[in-house]
Write a structure and sequence with these properties.
The chain has 906 residues and is of the alpha+beta class. The protein is 38% helix and 24% strand. A hairpin with a 2-residue loop joins strand 12 (488-501) and strand 13 (504-512). The chain binds serine. It comes from Syncephalastrum racemosum.
Length: 906
């Protein structure tokens, strides 16, 4: 192990000496030194959790090392270890901790970064935490004490005293307010506590006294819990949560001015520069990368890690953050002069920065990651130029120079039509010294959303917070629904609630045991019934799992005539915690869902087999009557490919075969080749569904016993849902038979109508008929044109006058339609231009004249004049006007009785 000379108070080093001593401590070395140190001091090393926080629906991303341990702070007894250490992947690009806008413009901000941390769930004290951290810095890393100082919360006398005990003099312990030294996860509910922070003196003369000090480690004394209504309560035991940004610490240890100059970014920056050189773009070779190089490097790391954890670009929630990050990177690339897709060329450089094997997902999922990035790049580059041109136009507009504000409609158009995330528009504006009125943009967005045009919405607003109390009270429902013999069983209510959601009244309950499936994984929840001991039946409308081990049923009276609130009161005595009930799952629906769930696995395997590539599942929906499967693939599938997949599934399922359910360790499952969805969270022991020799997938859903039940299988559609993501909808088993029946039902009638012997003959006949119709339409068109030109129709026109303009009023044959009348009107004004012409056909009236010959009236003025004296409406132009009369005109008599007087009236 590389060791440097022992340093401490009294041995200050010059910057040069410092760099010489420490520059060899690489980031991978830092990772392992940290974990080894804490392991040596009794901590269990824990692998980084996913960037998608599976245990916390209030967060968009894992944004601190403590997130995966949140439950253990609340219930330390459930933690499998008393203290732990980790290097956690973190993302700060949404919610309270959002650094997206700072990236590139400051030395230290990142969207994706790694957090080194040590945690105690009642295992050790505040004093231990301070001692462990201090020793790690000054003994293990041998940082000189004279370049360190700490802050404590101004009311934390204990913390202050503990630092003094470590030998820190008063001038090195700074007291700060709660805004600096009280840490919480977000603005809402969660564990929190006072903290002490350790700072490093960068000795950078270009920085102010304040900025010279770099925060390197935050030790949080997790002792409190903030409730949803903002009250602080005590956690059951005092816990410790510390976090040290790996990139920052690396910059200290490598003597670099900022994180982007450390080994973690070196390769990526080199990759970007090589890319520029290959395109003959002049490259600035300064040690400090430019803002755009920093943005690309940071965002590239973020996008790859996000995709490797199963996030795919979309217009919603996490997927939208990913899309924004990719688009911002592309705009920065454009600023550097790169106009083509290039990001995936950086992938080998990214891997060089993580070659210690700490994130195997980067190599395992490399092909999929690049595939997704490339598709997204191609999609955005088609509109980026057009959007930028629009913005440049705005910057050049003289009437905007005094406000230098981008009109909100433009920001919205850029977002809606050109795919510019709002923050990208804002960034470009800020670079030019312009602004965007984000409030006005938000209002516009809201208006659009209400009009139903807007698709952006957050996917983190699940109404699960309601059940936090049930979780805290440890209300658990054992799921028994994998066992088919228990789908109709005795059970007991363990919690009930009635509440209003908007105008709706909801009754929810937890029962134990619970045969109703509601565990997610794309499979729709079971429905069924709960019968109370007074005989009243309540329908199970929905099932959800708001927390680990908790299943909540949403119920309503089965009798639609019974009012929910009244029924709740009437059945109250039998509808409370402790009441016995009979729980019955709707078998038809459950079996349908099982068929389609196993069929989804078969489709997943079939796609891989036929497309010969590793696709990534991007979502799925398993319903009783059909399935939907989203996956990443760059182009539409051909009809041949779809047929081949369909055949593949049908050939395997027709011969039948049992499915197996196995519980095994995650490592065994993955090494046996089981497919795992990146975005799912798996425990140490996982459930694997196997169709022997065909498919093996990690899955918590319910499945058929024998795949024969999936036959027949039919793909109904294959469409695009987002750039690089395809969607297949399919049906299997009885639903498929039903689908074929419905599709075939009208065919005999169709054949009879077409006088066809079979469907093939039918298609030929229909084709011929359609061609004949087209030809007939054409002929009809010619004939009516001829007819319109063929002089007077049967009835002679009635002649009249309006303000010296001679008028001819014609009755058009009742069999002829409006387009004919219009043609006739045109012919009349062209051939008899000295007259104004009125044409009537029952309720339709038209006026036509040649304005070059009739100048004192227009077609519109004549029609309007008549309509002042007879009932109807309409209008038009100088040469032509059209209207509708309330009373039809069918004879010359009618004309003389109503139209002529209307025309001549004053
Ligand atoms: N949770 C604290 C932070 O994120 C310490 O890990 O800073």
């Amino acid at each position: 192990m590389y060791r440097i000379g022992r340093l401490g108070v009294g041995s200050p080093l010059t910057r040069k000496q410092w760099v010489r001593h420490l520059q060899q401590l690489s980031s991978p070395e830092l990772r392992s030194r940290f974990v080894q140190y804490f392991e040596k001091h009794g901590h269990t090393p824990v692998k980084s959790a996913s960037l998608i926080p599976h245990n916390d629906k209030t967060l968009l991303f894992t944004n601190a090392g403590m997130v995966p341990f949140k439950e253990y702070f609340l219930k330390p007894g459930t933690a499998p270890y008393k203290s732990a250490t980790s290097v956690q992947k973190c993302m700060r690009a949404g919610g309270k901790h959002n650094d997206l806008d700072n990236v590139g413009y400051t030395p230290r901000h990142h969207t994706f970064f790694e957090m080194l941390g040590n945690f105690s769930f009642g295992g050790y004290s505040k004093e231990d935490a301070i001692r462990l951290a201090w020793r790690f810095l000054v003994q293990e890393l041998e940082l000189p004490v004279d370049r360190l100082r700490v802050t404590v919360l101004d009311t934390d006398e204990v913390g202050y005293a503990l630092w003094k005990k470590q030998g820190l003099p008063d001038e090195k312990i700074v007291r700060c307010g709660a805004e600096d030294n009280f840490w919480s996860m977000g603005d809402g509910e969660g564990p929190c506590g006072s903290c002490t922070e350790i700072f490093w003196d960068t000795q950078d003369p270009s920085l102010s006294e304040e900025d010279r000090w770099l925060e390197i480690w935050n030790l949080v004394f997790m002792e409190k819990y903030r409730t949803a209504d903002n009250k602080l309560t005590d956690l059951p035991v005092s816990c410790i949560d510390t976090g040290m940004g790996l990139e920052r610490m690396a910059s200290v240890l490598q003597g670099k001015k900022n994180n982007f100059q450390t080994d973690q970014f070196l390769h990526l920056i080199q990759g970007i520069r090589e890319n520029l050189q290959n395109r003959n773009i002049p490259v600035m070779l300064s040690e400090d990368p430019s803002a755009h190089e920093k943005i690309i490097a940071d965002h590239f790391r973020a996008m790859c890690f996000l995709i490797s954890d199963g996030v795919v670009p979309s217009n919603v929630g996490r997927g939208y953050v990913l899309r924004r990050i990719i688009r911002r990177a592309l705009r920065s690339a454009k600023q550097l002069g790169i106009n083509e897709p290039f990001l995936t060329g950086l992938y080998p450089y990214l891997l060089q920065g993580f070659n210690d094997g700490s994130y195997p997902e980067l190599t395992e999922r490399g092909a999929s990651i690049c595939n997704i990035v490339q598709n997204e790049e191609a999609a955005f580059l088609t509109t980026l130029d057009r959007g930028l041109a629009l913005l440049n136009n705005v910057f050049a507009q003289p009437n905007l120079q005094h406000t230098k504000q981008i009109p909100p409609q433009i920001a919205f158009q850029l977002y809606d039509t050109f795919g510019f995330p709002f923050d990208l528009t804002l960034n470009i504006a800020l670079e030019k010294g312009w602004t965007v009125d984000m409030k006005a943009v938000e209002e516009l967005k809201e208006k659009q959303r209400q009009m139903g045009k807007e698709s952006w919405k957050s996917d983190s607003a699940l109404d699960k917070g309601r059940f936090a109390e049930w979780r805290n009270k440890n209300i658990l429902s054992r799921f028994t629904g994998y066992d088919r013999t228990l789908l109709d069983q005795e059970s007991q209510i363990v919690a009930v609630d009635i509440h209003k959601k908007g105008k709706k009244t909801l009754v929810t309950m937890a029962i134990d045991p619970c045969p109703f499936y509601g565990l997610g994984g794309g499979q729709v929840p079971d429905s069924g019934s709960v019968t109370l001991s007074n005989g009243q039946e309540w329908h199970v409308v929905d099932v959800l799992q708001p927390y680990e081990g908790g299943l909540v049923l949403s119920v309503a009276p089965s009798d639609p005539k019974r009012n929910i609130e009244k029924s709740f009161e009437e059945d109250r005595e039998f509808l409370q915690s402790g009441s016995l009930i009979r729980a019955k799952v709707d078998l038809d629906k459950r079996e349908g869902a099982e068929v389609h769930h196993t069929a989804t696995h078969m489709l997943n395997a079939g796609l891989r087999s036929i497309l010969k590539t590793d696709i990534v599942q991007a979502g799925s929906m398993v319903e009783p009557k059909k399935l939907r499967f989203d996956f990443t693939y760059g182009k539409p599938l051909t009809t041949e490919q779809l047929q081949a997949i369909e055949n593949w599934v049908n050939q395997i399922t027709i011969t039948g075969g049992e499915t197996n359910v196995k519980m095994m360790s995650l490592t065994d499952a993955v090494s046996s080749g089981a497919i795992a969805a990146f975005s799912e969270k798996y425990g140490e022991t996982v459930r694997v569904i196997e169709v022997p020799g065909v498919s093996r997938e990690l899955c918590g859903g319910t499945h058929v016993d024998d795949i024969r039940r999936l036959y027949p299988f039919k793909i109904l559609s294959e469409t695009s849902v987002a750039a690089g993501t395809r969607r297949i909808e399919a049906v299997a088993g009885l639903s498929c038979v039903e689908w074929y029946r419905k599709a075939y039902e009208p065919v005999p009638d169709l054949l009879k109508l077409l006088r066809a012997s079979d469907t093939k003959d039918g298609v030929a006949k229909l084709d011929k008929t359609l061609q004949q119709t087209k030809a007939l339409q054409k002929r009809l068109e010619t004939l009516t044109e001829k007819l319109a030109r063929a002089g007077e129709t049967v009835v002679h026109p009635v002649e009249a006058q309006i303000n010296d303009v001679p008028v001819r009023i014609h009755i058009v044959d009742a069999d002829l339609d409006i387009p004919f009348m219009q043609k006739r009107a045109r012919v009349l004004k062209e051939s008899q231009g000295e007259w104004a012409h009125v044409l009537v056909n029952k309720n339709t009236i038209m006026v036509a004249l040649d304005p070059s010959q009739v100048q004192t009236e227009t077609a519109n003025s004549i029609l309007k004049h008549m309509l002042r004296h007879i009932k109807g409406g309409g209008g038009g132009q100088k040469d032509f006007a059209q209207g509708k009369l309330a009373i039809p005109i069918t004879s010359v008599q009618d004309i003389e009785n109503s139209l002529v007087p209307a025309l001549t009236a004053q």
